[in-house]
Amino acid sequence: MNPNDGAKPGFLVRIWHAVLRFWRIVSRPSAYLPLGFLTLGGFLCGVVFWGGFNTVLEATNTEKFCISCHEMRDNVYQELTQTVHFSNRSGVRASCPDCHVPHNWTDKIARKMQASKEVWGKIFGTISTREKFLNLRLELAKHEWGRLKANDSLECRNCHSSVAMDFTKQTRRAADIHSRFLTTGEKTCIDCHKGIAHQLPDMTGIEPGWKEAPELQGRTGASYHGGPESELRAYLTRIEAR
Q1: Residues 97, 158: contact at Cβ < 8 Å?
Q2: What percent of the chain has pLDDT over 90?
Q3: Of 5, 14, 132, 237, which is the most buried if we count CB atoms within 10 A?
Q4: Where is 98: in which H helix or E strand?
Q5: For residues 198 and 80, is the Cβ–Cβ distance under 8 A?
Q6: Cβ neighbour number for residue 218 with a 10 Å cutoff
Q7: What secondary structure does DSSP assign to 3-22, as a single string?
Q8: Is the distance from CB of 112 to CB of 57 less than 8 angstroms?
Q9: What is the pLDDT of residues 6-51, one digit of tens each?
Q10: What's the Cα-to-Cα distance from 135 to each of 73, 129, 142, rounded to whole Å?
Q11: Ramachandran class of 195: left when φ > 0, alpha when ψ lies in -120 to 50, beta otherwise
């Protein structure tokens, strides 16, 4: 008989007792560990968890992450690079999250949860080709317009504040429209500023976002010329002629 065989049961018993002791400590820590130690441990665990959570959150809130899939890189990102939001005289660039994710933490979390469904689109190849993207472009645009309309263009206001606008430095047409529609809350940014960072889909049958002011509708002749109203009418005429 091997003399070591008798040691095996004792060893297993000691392991089992150690597991039971560990379980008693884990299940009833206050009976074995001081309250201060538990509080400090809980605080440190919370810091680690919170730091890890926010690190992952911010990693998914970068332009690099947004264009890591070819659906964004080869379509809307290429269009963004041709706009003033990407390259301008001031050198201040608006990246994807600036226009599609609110800055406030609670709003950001809500937006991230809402956008999680895009993972399914990636998995099932909803817009995996250029043709698929173009076919769904109007639908996708309507979703984003509707979202920005519902939250009062919150992402636009990440950078643009109506109360900080100096109307004296804007064109007469822009100053007039902003003072009459934006500052009064009658309209919001996305109502008028569709297609500022990406190409527009086929807009046939889509309201451009703002109409002629009531005082301009049906007016012609000499009484129509002069002032911001004439500039607005001229602008509409130029747009329709394109």
Answers
A1: no
A2: 40
A3: 132
A4: helix 96-100
A5: yes
A6: 8
A7: GGGGHHHHHHHHHHHHHHHH
A8: yes
A9: 555 677 778 888 888 777 766 666 555 566 666 777 888 888 988 9
A10: 18, 10, 13
A11: left
Task: Name the amino acid, one letter, at 239.
Answer: I
Residue 31 is classified by DSSP as G
Angle at 73 between CA 80 and CA 152, to 5 degrees: 50
Provide the token pair at 20. 């039971």
Higher pLDDT, 241 or 186: 186
The whole-angstrom separation of Cα 175 and Cα 219 is 22
The b-or-e profile of 51-78 (16+ CB within 10 A means b, else e) is eeeeeeeeeebebeebbeeebbeebbbe
The whole-angstrom separation of Cα 170 and Cα 159 is 17
Interatomic CA distance for residues 108 and 212, integer angstroms: 35
* Count of alpha carbons within 13 angstroms of residue 7, beta-carbon side: 3
Are 38 and 30 spatial neighbours (Cβ–Cβ below 8 Å)? yes
- Distance, in Å, from the CA atom of 198 to the CA atom of 75, rounded to the nearest integer, reads 9
pTM, two decimals, is: 0.66
- The two most distant CA atoms of the chain are separated, in Å, by 120
